[in-house]
Amino acid sequence: MRLRQLIKILKDENLDKVLKLGFCNPHSYRGYYEQLAFEPSQNVRVGDMLDAALDACGKTFTGYNGGQYIMLLHVEVWISEYGSCSGEMIGPRLLNYMLKDEVDESPK
Known about the structure:
Blueprint: H1 3-11, E1 18-28, E2 36-45, H2 46-56, E3 60-62, E4 68-70, E5 77-79, E6 88-89, H3 92-100
Parallel strand pairs: 2-5
Antiparallel strand pairs: 1-2, 3-4, 5-6
Helix pairs in contact: 1-2
Protein backbone atom coordinates (compact mmCIF):
# COMPACT_ATOMS: atom_id res chain seq x y z
CA MET A 1 0.00 0.00 0.00
CA ARG A 2 1.15 3.51 -0.69
CA LEU A 3 1.03 6.43 1.72
CA ARG A 4 -1.74 8.16 -0.26
CA GLN A 5 -3.96 5.07 0.00
CA LEU A 6 -3.29 4.73 3.72
CA ILE A 7 -4.25 8.37 4.33
CA LYS A 8 -7.41 8.04 2.24
CA ILE A 9 -8.60 4.94 4.12
CA LEU A 10 -7.84 6.41 7.55
CA LYS A 11 -9.70 9.64 6.72
CA ASP A 12 -12.86 7.60 6.10
CA GLU A 13 -12.74 5.97 9.55
CA ASN A 14 -14.04 7.16 12.91
CA LEU A 15 -10.98 9.10 14.10
CA ASP A 16 -11.88 8.59 17.77
CA LYS A 17 -11.97 4.79 17.48
CA VAL A 18 -9.25 3.16 19.63
CA LEU A 19 -7.57 0.12 18.11
CA LYS A 20 -5.89 -2.74 19.94
CA LEU A 21 -3.09 -2.74 17.36
CA GLY A 22 -2.07 0.21 15.23
CA PHE A 23 0.98 2.31 14.51
CA CYS A 24 2.82 5.52 15.38
CA ASN A 25 6.25 7.17 14.96
CA PRO A 26 7.05 7.26 11.23
CA HIS A 27 10.63 6.62 10.11
CA SER A 28 12.67 5.44 7.16
CA TYR A 29 12.28 1.66 6.82
CA ARG A 30 15.61 -0.10 7.32
CA GLY A 31 14.68 -2.77 4.75
CA TYR A 32 14.30 -0.09 2.04
CA TYR A 33 15.42 3.32 3.26
CA GLU A 34 13.39 5.15 0.61
CA GLN A 35 10.17 3.64 1.98
CA LEU A 36 8.22 4.65 5.07
CA ALA A 37 7.67 2.60 8.20
CA PHE A 38 5.65 3.13 11.34
CA GLU A 39 6.35 1.57 14.72
CA PRO A 40 3.67 -0.82 15.97
CA SER A 41 1.56 0.55 18.80
CA GLN A 42 -1.22 -0.68 21.08
CA ASN A 43 -4.40 1.11 22.12
CA VAL A 44 -3.98 3.84 19.52
CA ARG A 45 -6.62 6.16 18.10
CA VAL A 46 -7.26 6.10 14.36
CA GLY A 47 -6.86 9.89 14.44
CA ASP A 48 -3.35 9.53 15.87
CA MET A 49 -2.46 7.06 13.12
CA LEU A 50 -3.77 9.52 10.52
CA ASP A 51 -1.77 12.34 12.13
CA ALA A 52 1.40 10.21 11.94
CA ALA A 53 0.79 9.46 8.25
CA LEU A 54 0.03 13.09 7.40
CA ASP A 55 3.04 14.31 9.38
CA ALA A 56 5.35 11.96 7.47
CA CYS A 57 4.17 13.18 4.06
CA GLY A 58 6.81 15.41 2.50
CA LYS A 59 9.15 15.00 5.47
CA THR A 60 12.80 14.04 5.10
CA PHE A 61 13.98 11.07 7.15
CA THR A 62 17.52 9.86 7.72
CA GLY A 63 18.10 6.23 6.78
CA TYR A 64 19.35 3.87 9.48
CA ASN A 65 22.88 3.94 8.02
CA GLY A 66 22.65 7.49 6.69
CA GLY A 67 21.24 9.22 3.64
CA GLN A 68 18.25 11.50 3.36
CA TYR A 69 14.89 10.25 2.07
CA ILE A 70 11.83 12.38 1.37
CA MET A 71 8.59 10.53 1.95
CA LEU A 72 6.02 11.51 -0.66
CA LEU A 73 2.53 10.15 -1.28
CA HIS A 74 3.76 7.38 -3.61
CA VAL A 75 6.04 5.60 -1.09
CA GLU A 76 5.21 2.11 0.16
CA VAL A 77 4.34 1.84 3.86
CA TRP A 78 5.47 -0.76 6.40
CA ILE A 79 5.00 -1.56 10.06
CA SER A 80 8.35 -2.13 11.70
CA GLU A 81 10.29 -1.17 14.81
CA TYR A 82 12.92 1.49 14.15
CA GLY A 83 16.15 -0.15 13.05
CA SER A 84 14.56 -3.47 12.15
CA CYS A 85 14.87 -4.66 8.56
CA SER A 86 12.13 -7.21 9.06
CA GLY A 87 8.73 -5.65 8.88
CA GLU A 88 5.33 -6.22 7.38
CA MET A 89 4.11 -4.18 4.45
CA ILE A 90 0.85 -2.47 5.32
CA GLY A 91 -1.64 -3.74 2.80
CA PRO A 92 -5.43 -3.78 2.64
CA ARG A 93 -5.76 -7.02 4.61
CA LEU A 94 -3.48 -5.95 7.48
CA LEU A 95 -5.03 -2.48 7.69
CA ASN A 96 -8.55 -3.94 7.63
CA TYR A 97 -7.59 -6.28 10.47
CA MET A 98 -6.25 -3.37 12.54
CA LEU A 99 -9.30 -1.20 11.89
CA LYS A 100 -11.78 -3.90 12.91
CA ASP A 101 -10.02 -4.81 16.17
CA GLU A 102 -11.26 -2.11 18.53
CA VAL A 103 -10.52 -1.78 22.22
CA ASP A 104 -13.60 -2.77 24.21
CA GLU A 105 -14.28 0.24 26.42
CA SER A 106 -17.57 -0.98 27.82
CA PRO A 107 -17.83 -1.18 31.63
CA LYS A 108 -17.14 -4.61 33.08
